[in-house]
Structure formats: structure tokens, C-alpha cells
Amino acid sequence: MEKFEAHRQRMFGLAYRMLGSAAEAEDVVQDAYLRWQGMEREGIGSPGPWLAKVVTNLCLNRLTSARATRERYVGFWLPDPVATEALGPLETAEQRDSISMAFLVLLERLTPAERAVFVLREAFSYGYREIAGVLDLSEANCRQLHLRARRRVGERPRFDAPGEHRRAIVNRFLAAASGGDLAGLEQVLAADVVAWSDGGGKVTAARRPVTGRDRVVRYVAGVMARFGMVGVEFAHAEVNGQDAFLGRGGDELVTVLVVEVADDRVIGLRAVLNPDKLSHFQ
């Protein structure tokens, strides 16, 4: 048990990047634990590589059905929000960006095999020989899958580094949004800002992205006014490597709003309102 627990957070981080769902990632880690319990430990040289292989292949089994489910999803799909600290040490900007909602949405473009190779290579720095061992493929095939994945993903999102300066920008955004300060919102939003909402058809949410500063200002002002009318209060958190706000009405979490900042401006807003995706924070 102790050896498995030493790898639990890393395995959750791998499964979450593969699936974009915290609940499914936890299920995969639990399935891996059951397989670990049923194995003769003498046959396992090193727990880390063995668990990575088990978790990756469990995720591959789920990805085909997950894609079909997302094709039927009502409105815009966003990954489950997860507290940054739950996803393990993030020592580089690339590792931090690899858990961003923006990046996980891009990974939806990939086939299951491409996604597995890309995540192992880009987020966990696996060599092609290691990836080949995990997926039971040749090194040449893994290189080809990685090249295809990079082309499909395209340019990866880049955000301002975390810290007091970025925190000050997102606090200015919240103050302006909560106070109905349209001029203040205009100052903090980038000209090409985009706002996405995920209600999953279960709560009211914009079903298409809202684009451009003028539209986003009006949209945010309207949404925050509605939240204010029902007593929703916001508290800062770090979610998916970004600054975010947890909106609660009483004891109930009603939204997680991730604020993406680049070049000292808010470039993206991702609001998760689907109650099924908020249980990880309850």
C-alpha cells in the first residue's frame, strides 16, 4: 500500500491529462490499485513504470467511449477543474501549461494513441523507448505518433507566470466584474479575449464561445449581476495551473471560473457550471 501511495498523485496526474475528467481519473487510479493488489510484487521490477503502463492502458480503454460522449455533449465541453496542488509537482512552465484547461481542450483533437504518446512525452518527459514499452509499440511508431500529435495540437498556449503580479491582474478583473465597472473590465481584458462556459445542458450557460472585448464585457457584466442577485460569493483558488475563483451560493459550489492571463491582460475565461464537474471541489 505504501509503495502504491507514493505514486498515487503522479498516476492521477497522468490519468487526468489523458481523460480530462477528475472523476474518471480517480476511477482509473482505483482500478490500477486493485490490479496492484492482485499482482505478485516479485514480478514487478519498479512500481513506477508498471503503474504508468497500467494507468495509460486503462485510460486508452476509456477514451473511445469518452469521445462518443463528448460528441453528444450539450454546449461547449471543458475539462473538470482540479486544484493545481492535486496534480503533483510542476517544476517547469511546460509542465504547468500541460494541466491548463486550454491545453487539455487542444488534446481533444488527438486520437487515443496520439494523446498517450503526447502526454507521456510532453508532460512527463518520457523517452521514446520508455513510451514504446508502455504502449507496446515500436520506437519508430511512437516518434511518428508524437510528430502527428504535435502537428494536430499546433501552437501551445502560453500564459504569464504565477505570482503576485498575475494575481493582481485577476483581482482587478474580479473587482471590476463584481462591481459592474465596465470601463475597468475593458482595461483588464485583451482585445481578442474569449469566454467559454460549460453547463452541460444542466444549468444555464452560453453554448458557444463569446469572443472580443466588447462582447465579453457585456457578457461578464450580465453573468456577474445574476450571480450577485442570488448571493454568490467568489474566493480565489489555483486551478489547473491558473488563477481562478470559486463561486459559492451558501455552501453550494456553483461555478469555477479560470482566468487566463498573458502579456498582463486577461485573454481567456473558462467557467465550469456543470454540477457533475464540480464535485471534486465540494
From TrEMBL:
Keyword annotations from UniProtKB, A to Z: Sigma factor, Transcription, Transcription regulation
Pfam families: Sigma70_r2 (PF04542), Sigma70_r4_2 (PF08281), SnoaL_2 (PF12680)
Name this protein carries in UniProt: RNA polymerase subunit sigma-24
Domain named RNA polymerase sigma factor 70 region 4 type: residues: 101-152
DNA-binding recorded as keyword: no
Domain RNA polymerase sigma-70 region: 4-67
Every SnoaL-like domain range: 170-245
Family to which the UniProt record says this protein belongs: Belongs to the sigma-70 factor family. ECF subfamily.
SUPFAM superfamilies to which the protein is assigned, alphabetical: NTF2-like (SSF54427), Sigma2 domain of RNA polymerase sigma factors (SSF88946), Sigma3 and sigma4 domains of RNA polymerase sigma factors (SSF88659)
Subunit structure: Interacts transiently with the RNA polymerase catalytic core formed by RpoA, RpoB, RpoC and RpoZ (2 alpha, 1 beta, 1 beta' and 1 omega subunit) to form the RNA polymerase holoenzyme that can initiate transcription.
Transcription found in the keyword field: yes
GO biological process: DNA-templated transcription initiation
Molecular function in Gene Ontology: DNA binding; sigma factor activity
